[in-house]
Structures are given as C-alpha cells and as structure tokens.
Specification:
The structure is a homodimer.
Chain A lengths: L8 H29 L3 H12 L4 E3 H8 L3 H13 L3 E5 L7 E5 L1 H23 L4 H23 L1
Antiparallel strand pairs in A: 1-3, 2-3
Chain A binds a DNA duplex through helix 4.
DNA sequence: ATACCTTAGTTGAAGCTTCAACTATACGTG
DNA sequence: CACGTATAGTTGAAGCTTCAACTAAGGTAT
C-alpha cells in the first residue's frame, strides 16, 4: 500500500461496481427468500450452515464466525428461529458458558424445501452471465478481500 | 444458463467468498465511518453522490437509482440528514411531483472532512492486497453482476 | 485458593430498513 | 378534456441490527 490515500481511476471504477453489487444483491436475495420461503437471507444462511454441520449443531460462537456476524445478531436470530420451531438451544457439555444451536427436523425440512429456489436465484443473479474464468476470478479476488477483512477484525 | 439448478463446485467456492465479503464489508466500513465521522456508510454514500452532482443537487428518484436504494429508504435518510443541516429539500421547478435534495455547504464540508478516512478504509480493506489485474477482474465481474441485478429489478 | 482477565452468551433500547398505504402530479388515450 | 394509469415522494408501523451493559464461566498467575 503506497502513501497516497486516494483511489486511482481503475480502483474507483471497481469500487463503484463492487458497491453496486453489495448494495443490491442482499436486497434481491432477501426479496426472493421472503416471498418464496418467508425467510430472511440471513436466517436461511444460518440454517443452511447448521444443516451442513456435524449433528446439525454448532456452538453459537463458531456459527457466528462461520456466518460472519456478531454473537448478538446470531443470538437474536436463533431466538426467532427457536420460536418458529426450526432451531433449539442446548447447553454445551464441554463448556458451560457455551450454547449449541441445533437444527430441528422441521428446520432441516425448511432448508431442503427453500434451497432450490434460493440457489436458482443465486445462479440467476450472480452466475448467469459469468464464464469459468469469471467465476475463478471472483473466487480469487473475493478470497483476498475476505482474508483482509479477517485480519482487520482481530488484528 | 443450463437446466441444472445447483451450483457446481467452483461456483460454490466463489459464492462463499463473495458472501463473506458482502456480509462483512458493510459492517467494517460502517464501523470506520461511525467512529471517525458519526455517519452511516449509506449516509456518506448519499452525500458523496450529491457532492459530485451538478449544483450539488439531485432529484430523489435519480439519487435513489444512483445509490441503489428504494425511494423510501432515501427519503428517510434525507430527513435525517436534513435534521443535521447537511441536506435540504427543494421543489423541482420542472416536475411538481419531484423533490430535489441539495447538499448544503455544511454537508459538503462534512463529506470533504470524512472522505480521506473513508477512502483509506476502502483501500485498506478492499484494495490493499490486489494487483492491477485483480482490480480489473473485480470491476469486470462486478460489472456483469450489477448489470444482471439491474435487469432483474425492472424486467 | 484468590484475584484478575478473557470468552460465551443474553438482553433491552435505539436506530435503520422495509413494507404497505397514501397523496399528488404527470402522462396517454379515446 | 376526462379517465385511467404510472410515477414521485412521504409516512408510520413492524422487524432486524447494532450497541452497550450485564451475567456467567473458563484460564492464569501469584
């Protein structure tokens, strides 16, 4: 990183496009999931992560890291999902401070039922016009940025 | 787009990285601007767009399109910015339905004062580890996705 | 063992976004 | 010109996220 604090032209163009994506993509995904499944994107994301976890369960701390969110946000969401019968809280036998979120059968069913529509939306909105090289570039560049974001949050 | 509704492995990897970025980048930018300038990222974004506009003014409809947001969201934000003395509403002489948001001198000052810190954060979080080719790829791929999002919202 | 620091999680309040309902004005068509 | 419809914007309520304060438990050094 050089001393100049400003963005050059190429960076400005890239930044505008990136900002357009992250200002609108969440809304677009939200709309589809809300309409077709009555879920927020984040609720879906949390349940999808749980559905892939060992025993469909995970400590809230680990789940929050995986979902890129604060513990507080996750706790509120789990409360809502619990009310709807899709998740339960269980004490963690290994650490009494910790809580494990467990996906119920109903919750798993909900994920399975919502997934195709959601994945189709992701395909239609994100991948429809990308070729193999684009996908590879997207993974690489976002991976670099995500790693950076990682380091900035603990360092 | 082929008939298979699922994502292939490369797409899944790219999707996870992209999701990590758009789940965390807004929060990271928010934190910096809130701490250093007392602004939300979106408030900054709106004022920055106004600062570049002809006469530092724009119809709410046009500004909403530029900022990738709903008219309702923008209207609420403009109300808050108005309360703080950074923006004013004026009737549009050409269309009586329309309202023009105008950046005040205080608002312009606020943007000028907040910009360096914000741009530095964008550089540090997004561009620090990207080379020229990465930046070009980011612009290209995000441009394609943004165009897609465009078409999906009106079509 | 005690004192101190760190980590896990919860909770309520405040603030922002979304949604739906509403007003007002412009535009198009017969 | 009148009618129906589309567009611009506002507003209040409901819902979600963030923030700060708090409880509880683990770790560590003395």
């Amino acid at each position: 990183m050089d001393a100049n604090p400003w963005l050059d032209e190429a960076e400005q163009r890239a930044w505008r496009e990136l900002a357009a994506v992250f200002l609108r993509l969440p809304g677009a995904l939200e709309t589809q999931l809300q309409r077709d499944a009555g879920l927020s994107h984040f609720e879906y994301w949390v349940m999808a992560l749980l559905s892939e976890a060992d025993g469909r369960a995970r400590r809230l701390r680990d789940l929050a890291d995986q979902a890129n969110c604060s513990l507080s946000r996750l706790s509120h969401v789990v409360t809502r999902l619990e009310r709807r019968g899709w998740v339960q809280r269980h004490p963690d036998p290994d650490d009494a401070r910790s809580t494990r979120a467990v996906l119920t059968d109903a919750g798993y069913g909900k994920v399975v039922e919502s997934a195709p529509g959601h994945v189709a939306a992701v395909r239609a909105l994100v991948f429809a016009d990308l070729d193999e090289r684009d996908v590879a570039a997207l993974e690489r560049v976002c991976g670099i940025i995500a790693a950076r974001l990682d380091r900035s949050s603990d360092g």
